[in-house]
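3.2 Worked example (two chains)
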Amino acid sequence: MTRIACLSVPLFPLAARLRSEPDLEPEAVAVVEGSGNAARVVAATRRARRGGVRRGMSLPQARALLPKLIVRARDAECERAARESLLEIVESFSPRVEDAGQGVVFLDLTGLERHYRAADEAAEPAEPPPTDERAPHPGGARTGAGRRTAASPTPTGGPSDGGDATELRLGRALQAASEKAGLPARVGIASSKLAARVAAESSATPVVVAAGSEASFLAPLPLARLAPEAAVVETLHRWGVRSIGELARLPKNRVASRLGAEGRMLLERARGVDRRPIIPYRPPPAFHEGTDLDWPLVAIEPFLFVARAALDRLCRRLEGRGLACSRLELALRLEPHGHDERSIALPSPTREVKTLLTLIRLDLERRPPGAAVTGFTLTAHPDRPREAQLTLFGSASLSPDRLATTLARLFALLGPDGAGSPRTVDGHLPERCALVDYRPPPPPRERPETRPRHGLLAVRVLRPPVPLEVLTDGVSGPAAGNPVEVRPAVAAAEEKRPVIGGRIRVASGPWTVEEGWWTEEAVAREYWDVELGDGGVYRIYRERVSGDWFADGLYD
């Protein structure tokens, strides 16, 4: 038999808001919908409810009861992020998940009993007593352990029922995972969606309704729990039917003949039969986090302080799915009705909050928004992070996370075309190269042996080449033994480039390089290796057409 669990977050607009601002949880907070004096209270914290604040009150009425009441407007972005987070939690338990909206999720538990096998009740940790102020559920009695059982001859979840004890352990695991994500949820488990949802709305959860006892569990409840049409309710009230149990005792044929298909469906649900299947939920291709600000922000630092909390939640969600952010989108809502959207491409997937926050800062400093920010949405496009295979004997490989972080900071400072791995291209000029994505080669399997070798010179390329003035005293080139001298050009001093100058002690060359002589952009050069009086060894060249001299390399 199919078993269904319902995960319900009470006061979902408030829970979504407190997930973004957890510091407000012990305070008297009310979430309102609307503007001005017409705003109505949608949900309130326990401290505000103790002060008399109730759902449906106007904002002036709530302020009159609690002058220090903290008011937050209902935030669609916070609710969307909380809803996605709740669905990600249940997807880690079961692949069949349905989003019922407003913090209610159904999931199929078929086959999960093997992962949550029943244990002895003595080994089970005692549950704390319920702290909710609502009255006991009409469908059962409260047990000594603080959980509710269905009104059936055999208590569910007891030591004699291993299947119910297994489901009880599963319900506790669902509750713990939801609370860890900042969403206090209640769990109900039954064989129908209606019974599971009613069980989840109990004050002492998790609640397990034994298979086959759904009808007796629903019997004491009023007809409104079946959500019938108003005309059907009026007809049933004229018949004297007030509860679900009274409706379940009516003859099926007579109810169907008088109330039609709607009455037949209500009768089946009253008898514990719910034919509605679980509608699979398709996860979105990206992860969202955001909020509407209570007041407009004009400076970068206050905005980054708020954005950091959203990035923390976003990266925790990515980490829970084993993913990383490959592209980050930032959508700003500007005062009064403006929008500013920007996309930040990452060279490698990462989930480090500090790196993502630095990229947002650099992007905002480079192109500030045109008005005050009243809200924002962060969208992370996920990808699999790079993984490195550990080795026992070879050299240690680079950490993929640290590499992604370093590359992201380099791209933010130098631009998308200023960092990468150089690759040679087809050409004769030494500066011919291209930048590709940096992918370090794997470390060698064995550490290479060091052998004695003669000293080798390595050239440090100067980009762009440094302009020079070469005095040859009538000689065609800087041949050794001639009174020649190298001086920095005027442009080099103005641009603060390396200053290269002195009398040439040793010269070797020239080496002629020609490229594209058949095109309009032909190149003809003469390269020389020279040692100056200060001991520096440089690679210089002369353009044949213009006669200008440049230094493009320094030998180390």
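3.2.1 Second chain
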Amino acid sequence: MNSSTENSELQPLSDTALNAASSELVHSLLRLLHIAQYRRKTIVQAVCVAAILGATYYALAPRYYDSNAKLLIVHRNQDQIASMADPPSVDSTMATHREIVVSPVVLQQAVEQLLPEQRVDFQDAPPSNWARILAEGLSARTTRKANFIEVSYRSRSPEAAAAVVSAVIQSYLQFVDYTHKGSASEAIAVLTHKSDQVAVSLATKKDELQACRDRVGSLALEPDTGIIEPAIQRALKLNEALSDAQQRRLKLEASLASIAEAIRKGEDLQQHLVALEGVVGQQMLISALGLTPQDNVLIKAQEQKLLDAHVELQRTAPYYGPAHPKVIELKERAQAIEQYLASYRAQTTERFAAFGGGQLGPLLVKMMDQSVAKVRQEEERLQLAFDAERAKARAQTDDMQKMQDIEREVARLEAEYDSLISKIATVDTHQLQAPIQATVVQEPLPDDIADSPELRLVGLLSLLFGLFVGGAIAYVQDVLDDRFASPEEMSGQLGVPVLSMIRRMTALEGTGLASVQTYVSPNAVETEAFRTLRTALTLGTGATDRIAISSAEPGDGKTTVAANLAVSFAQAGKKTLIIDADLRKPGMTAMMGLKGRPGVTDVLNGRKNPADAAAELVHSTELRGLDVLPAGLRRPNPAELLADQKFSELLAWAEATYDQVLVDCPPVLAVSDAQIVGRLVDGAILIVQPQKNHRRLVARACHSFTATGCTLLGVVANGLSSESERGYGYGYGYGYGYGDGYGHDAEMEQPSKDVLAWEPSQRSKAA
């Protein structure tokens, strides 16, 4: 099932529950109104007593008089003194000053300002309690969205009330003025002391800054300029030179290792000469080979001439041709130079060859050792110089950082000192001006009209108190008096209708129908109640051919009601059968004088068909159409007999034979027989005596029927009295009498002067 279907099903349930709750509430209110109406004397008495008490209090209570004054609080636009936080809001300021007005300091000062004749409220108290007594009668209120404080005081004297309010206001104004001036003086002292401390710290920091500047020197530069300090520049350059020296040393050591490896392996060392030229230097290499610098210059000059000849030859050859003397001369000159150079190289090669074997290797190793030693010495010198310059640069940097820190601290102290001087000037300027201005806009005046006690308030409270106490007493009485107050209450609480109300009847002498009121006096007033019951059952919505009649407790008159109702049905022309199903105490059998006669128990225990057996055991009465089936001989198991299938067959025979069947059952709270019978008939009637039965027992009896699936047609209020004022009113005065059959009216029954109900004395005893 989807959610929409569930919601559609739950909605009627919620509406039903709501309607039930509303109906229950209305019923409860109606019941309370009914209780109030019935117990109205109690409520009226309680209201009268409360009115008397209120009048007594109003007459004897001391009179108190109020005096009021109003203060206007205006905020000045000035900086908050001795506070760096945001100024407080208007609401918090008004609340603060309202508390100041009622503070013990202000009240004590106000008490001291009062004259002896103005202390009428403090005469019987020691001076130490005067401020407390004043606080009890004083009130201060702030006006919402307005800067007003209303001050009021209640006193036994109008003049004293006005004097107290005036003294409190003057004390408040003096307190605010004194507090502000005292705070300003203290603020100035605190700010001055703090400014002196800041000045001393500032002077000390300035001295440190100057000493640091002298130590650093004028060459110190700001970091934002982008210029590097000279000491740092020297350290950087020495670091670069040291790095170059280290690289050269490493290169020489690598070449030396390569040459040593070549010597060890016996490789040709001439290939290392070209590489050594860039490491040990060209001049050193030429000298080591036995050549002079002039040879080198001569070779370079010849190479230059050869180059010039080739250039000249290339330039002139296209114009003169190969046989031209100039071209031939240039070729011969170039050949001569090439021959010279070739001869020189051959000589050099011979010299290199002369270094073969064990001469070139040691020479190269010696040259490399000398170069490495020279570079290492240079590296050590540069390392020492770099370390010295780096230490100087580090010290210079530390001094510059310290100088910058001191400069920032000096700037901070200067700003703090300037702020303190500005605050001192502000406090001094506004020392005589309070942050708020309080003005009295309503002076306290004596009022000769007493404000307490107030007549209307006392009257209203007395009325409410009387109604509450009277209602509570009436409700308690009604709870203790556990009886139904009216037919409406009975019907509402039980959930079934009240079918009829039968007044108390005098017992008739005799047996059989001679003891039945409806048969003996068919035109009596009491008989109409049974006709009303017959009509209610006949006109009901459901079938009422088979009816069980029971009661909540023994002695409620169920047998009498059953007999009279049966006679009423028979008088209406219905063939009626009364079955006495009270197999334990068969009252109907005794009433009809049929004790010892076979009946229901014999039908249920016999072997015959219940229809045949019952037809033989039914007894006819003097009234045509009314028969009785007695209970029969007592058996030890009445409940089992009634639950047997034969009893159902007996009821089926009775329904087929008679128009109306009435079953007299035992009390429902005593045994379960009535519930067993109730499930087999069309419905049940519960006989109740309101003056005797408790509400809870009657409700339990109704629940016993409904819980077992029996249809409860309604209840009958029996044994009502005409001497009470309770709500079972039923006038029996009708506007006509009963004819005598000859065209004349019989003597009319006199109407009852009072409503029908049970005796109040009996109700009180029961409660």
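3.3 Remarks
The two ends are 55 Å apart (CA to CA).
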